[in-house]
Structure formats: C-alpha cells, structure tokens
Amino acid sequence: MNIELLAPAGNPEKLKMAIIYGADAVYLAGPRFGLRAGAGNFTYEDMKEGIKFAHQRNKKVYVTMNIMPHNEDFEGMEDYIARISDLGADAIIVSDLGVLSVIKEINPSMPVHISTQANVTNYKTARYYKELGASRIIAARELSLEELSFIHQKVPEIEIEAFVHGAMCISYSGRCLLSSFMCGRDANRGDCAQSCRWKYYLMEEKRPGEYYPITEDERGTFILNSKDLCMIEHIPELVAAGVSSFKIEGRMKSSFYVSTVVRAYRRALDAYLNDPENYVFSQEWLDEVSKVSHRSFTTGFFFNRPGADSQNYGTSSYIQSHEFVGIVLSFDEKEKTALIEQRNRVFSGEEIEIMQPNGRDISMKITDMWDMEGNRIDSTPHPQMKYTLKVPETIMPNSILRKKL
Prior knowledge:
This protein is of the alpha/beta class.
C-alpha cells in the first residue's frame, strides 16, 4: 500500500524541514500563477535547490499554478511551464482547464493534479479530468468519506488527494469573493486578505452609529471562523475511502508547525501501514499536533455536514501550548554542545524540549549558553541570533527546540 504524506513548503527552510521530518512530497508556489501570493513564493533558484534537495532523498515537489486566470494571465505561461519542467517539478497543480491545456501543449508528459479549487465533487468530473490527462484530483473539501469512496470505486485509475489537516476556508472549496469586496484583493488570483477572520458587527438602518455583534445561538460573533481540520485519528477510514495522498495545509505557517504536524502524521501513518490489522491510535500523536498554534479541531465534511460545532463562535484566537524557540544547526559530539539559531527568546533556568526528526524527544533545563564570541549568556535577546547550548546527550541537526507556554 502506497500512501503519500504531502506537506506545505512556504519557503526553502520549510521545504527542507517538511522532508526531514517525514513528508513524501511537498507543494509550493513559484514566482507566478500560484494562489497564495503572500505565502513566500519560491524564486527559480529556490525551486531549483528545493527540487534538488527533495530528489536527492527520493521525495517529490509539486508546483501550484492554481489561480483562476483571466485572459491577461496567460501571458508568459508557456515559458513558465517550460522552465519549471526543466527544473524537474514532479507535477503541476491547476484549477483551470485553460491552464491544463497549455501544460499538455508544452509538456505532455508532465503529471497534472486538479486543485481543490476546481470543485471536483463527483466521479464523472474525476473521470473526465482523467481523460483530459490529469493523474490526480485534489478532492473538494465538501466531500464525505462515503463520497470519496464512491469516486474511487468508479474511477480507480485516478489518484485522490485530500486535505487532512489545517485551516479551513469558509467558502465553497476556497472560492471566495469576500476579500475582493472588502479590500480589492482577489482570493482567486492569489491575494486573499482572510476577511473571513475579521470581527463583524451589525448596524440597524434607523440607529446609525449603534453597532451590534452578530451572534449565532447566543455564543459569539465569528460567524465565518471555521475550526481547523484534523483527521489524525481517522487514518484507517481515509485509506479505506481510497485517499492516496494525505495533504497538510499551511504554507504560511512556521517551520515549527510544519515539522511538528508532519512528524505526527508520519508516525501515525507508518504505524497503520506497517500493521493495519493491529493498528491502535496513540493519543501522543494528537497531543503533538495540539502543541502548535491552531484553532479547535473538527473533522470537516468527512463524516457529515458540519454544523454549529464546527465553527468558532466565541473567538478567532488560536490555541497554542508550546513556543518555537530554536533550530539545531549542528552538534559537537566531543563538547556535547549544539549550535542553535534562535526563533524566540529563552532564558537560563528554563525548561525546554528538543524535538528530533527521528528518535525520542529530550527534555532539559537550560544551564549553559554562550554567544558566538564564547561569552556566557543568560538569555537570547536578538532575533535569529546563533548561540551554543550545552545539552545532556547527542541530538540531531535540524532538531526543533520548543518550550511550554
């Protein structure tokens, strides 16, 4: 059984961390035609290096070209496709038939994945995309496991990719006009302002200047504020439904988020694939994904139509139990010291946890730190400063340092 774990890559560091922590493939946006203009899109040189890093480890890189293009957006598209093909992209993600046609003209052998933005909600659409040359559909988020299973039974020759974790857009498969209306930023062309996360009030016509919070069931004001998707407890059901690629959302999230969530799903997925008959879910995996910044969790549409309990009515704030404080750049076995790049401030005497790509996590109290000139320090006040930390045992490069809030 071959199930892919697919992770977001918002920049080169996140790409590397996703792969190091267990992703089989990553998806990213190049300089043009992607649907996340603010997600740290890759330059051509970044893409070249990222694809090389992935391929050296037998991993894949998928490039998004999933905007809803207007006529002028096709200018330069042929050259762009040729260039990312030459860089070695493993597939291109599209939401528009015109873009699909251009890809097949320029590079007929390039695998094409149909974006969730294309709203594939039935087997006939999936079959037709297969006939047009697509190798995979990224299922609309509005589909249940039962509907996914039906598509898989009817069109077993096309791969099904589904989002399993991360933020949920309130609009139909991400097709939203709210951002365009509120601030002139087109969500369907890569420039969403996340207007659905704002706080809204109601003003009655004859009471100008008197604002009332919009409430539902008397519980709050955030009517557009979905909980985060989390399917880590339901891996057997996803596999049984024919999902062959488990997709994690979050190109704008931190390296800490990507590393933590990918590692947890990697462990859960491997446990199932190694012994499906005796698979037992571990609470530890859910605890891990709960350590990063997130909203309350929901299973979305997979088991039924989401109701009131899938929305956050009381607050738009995130839940976060741990803070990302550093990345291990290297380890000195003789001195038992690690070279750290700071992400958030730590102080001598604080308890931290070292999360390793492979192997167990290590809990320790900070006792000895030195700056790059060898001076002993009691804290790390400068953003992304490098410092040396005494650790109790051998740790792996690219390990994550985190502390409980």
